[in-house]
Amino acid sequence: MKPIVAITMGDPVGIGPEITVKALSDPSIYSICQPLVIGDVSILESAMAVTGHHLHIREIQNTGDGRFQPGTLNLLPLSRLSAPPSWGRPDTETGKAMVHYILRGIDMAMAGDVAALVTGPINKYAMNLSGYHYNGHTELLAERTGTKNYIMMLAGDRIRVSLVTIHTALRNVADLISTEKIRTTLQVTHKALVERFGIPAPTIAVAGLNPHAGESGMFGDEEERILQPALEQARSEGIDAKGPFPPDTLFYHADQGRFDAVVAMYHDQGLIPFKMRHFEDGVNTTLGLPIIRTSVDHGTAYELAGRGLADHRSLLAAIRMAALHAENTMKTSP
């Protein structure tokens, strides 16, 4: 049986509803999974009106009531917001609804009601406005699932990047990285590549922190003092970890297929080259969680919301990756 994949609608006044409707208008999605949207019927109907994509919305209360077939959008309704929405203008109510979709999706995945969770784009300001003080999806997911060692990965068919630090000021990065943190990132990334991506013997490259990976200490000693010990420990555990490499050349080789993933020290070090390659179809996935979670790699794009112009390819890729990970996980489960 195809895995049930829960899809949160995202911010109700962002592009999430529109890309959800567009993605589920693609019949190929139903050949790989059973998609279930968590969201709001009126907002989705408004999204259909602006996109010109028309699906039959079937409101259900449990997965057993779904009819997972092309042309039908199975919806678990969690809010009843006013429609048409004020596109691009979040408020307390839309922020609360946005977070409630995520929390229900996490709980369903934890309970085994769905095989994977795909999250639509959210706005951190709207999240905090509604009383949920998190930096984004990742921290909320970790807390809700009781996960300590979690890793943010951005993945495409050419490049995969795991981050040692995520949302922090650049001036803090050197103080935040540690041998243990890099080692954990390598461990979690290796495990995910094997179990979820289906790569039996992955090779992982590590980017240096400093220009030229420190140039033997000339431009910083973090590579020798922090990164190298982490690599040695990972190799002793059977992980094929290579580096640290100069960041300015590493991603060229990753793009050429030399490595299965790259570990980057900070957000923009990894995401700038990643999005140069995968701006339209990149996927954000949280590794180390007890559930499968993928997401679009973009935000709410308020300036586009309600115009029917939003690109849904990242959401399509996130759904396909979630379905693949669910299948691979079932194969490797005892």
Furnish the topology, listing elements before pairings.
Elements (H helix, E strand, L loop, with lengths): L3 E5 L7 H8 L10 E6 L1 H11 L4 E4 L12 E6 L14 H20 L4 E4 L4 H6 L7 H9 L5 E5 L4 E4 L9 H4 L2 H17 L7 E5 L14 H15 L3 E6 L1 H9 L5 E4 L2 H12 L4 E5 L5 E4 L16 H20 L2
Features:
alpha/beta; Isopropylmalate Dehydrogenase; 4-hydroxythreonine-4-phosphate dehydrogenase; pyridoxine biosynthesis; 334 residues; single chain; 2 domains; metal-binding; PdxA_fam; NAD binding
CATH class of the largest domain: Alpha Beta
Strands of the biggest beta sheet: in what spatial order? Answer: 3-4-2-1-5-12-11-6-7-10-8-9
Percent range for helical residues? 25-40%
- The helix/strand series, from N terminus to C terminus, equals EHEHEEHEHHEEHHEHEHEHEEH
What can be said about the biggest beta sheet? 12 strands, mixed
Can you count the helices? 11
In whole angstroms, the N-to-C terminal distance is: 18 Å
Please provide the count of β strands: 12
- The percent range for strand residues is 15-25%
Query: What do the pLDDT scores average to?
Result: 95
The name of the CATH topology of the largest domain is Isopropylmalate Dehydrogenase
Category by helix and strand content: alpha/beta
Keywords: Cytoplasm, Metal-binding, NAD, NADP, Oxidoreductase, Pyridoxine biosynthesis
GO molecular function: 4-hydroxythreonine-4-phosphate dehydrogenase activity; metal ion binding; NAD binding
Binding site for substrate: 137-138, 275, 284, 293
Family: Belongs to the PdxA family.
